Amino acid sequence: EGQHAMERQTALTLLLIDVDRFKQINDTYGHQIGDDCLRHVAQKVCQLLNRPDAFVARYGGDELAVLLPRVDVQAASDLSNGLCRGIAASTHLPACHVPDAKPLTISCGAATATGGALDLTRGDLIHMPAGLIAAADRALYTAKTLGRNQAAVADLA
Fold first, then answer.
1. Candidate list 62, 72, 124, 137, residue with the active-site label
2. Over the stretch 116-133, which tens digit does the pLDDT of each residue have?
């Protein structure tokens, strides 16, 4: 149990979130509406997480990245699955307020670095380990391949 607490204390989880069928939203309604969608989803993600230490940012143009300090693998799985359910159930997220659009859903990939795999002494996130980003990206691809509107967690072992 002490080891688990130590890992949680030095863990950093990265979530990569993709709005499902986002290209279709952009192509149908335009990039401004697409940008509005991403902003609404980011706000809802912050609300659902309800964690002051979470850092949510737009990543790669059409994805969101969420950094969660002190979140271990099990918590990462719970949080990412909760985000998928919360976004899908949200009545406040019609696809960019377009009346005939289907409700938005997201896919989420999670990866967690713990202990020796993570150097938190640098004090900034510019040196994010490339392996963590690659693992979260692989998990996101898995979630989308399995049918979207779900989360997958990377195995870094």
1. 62
2. 555 544 444 445 578 899
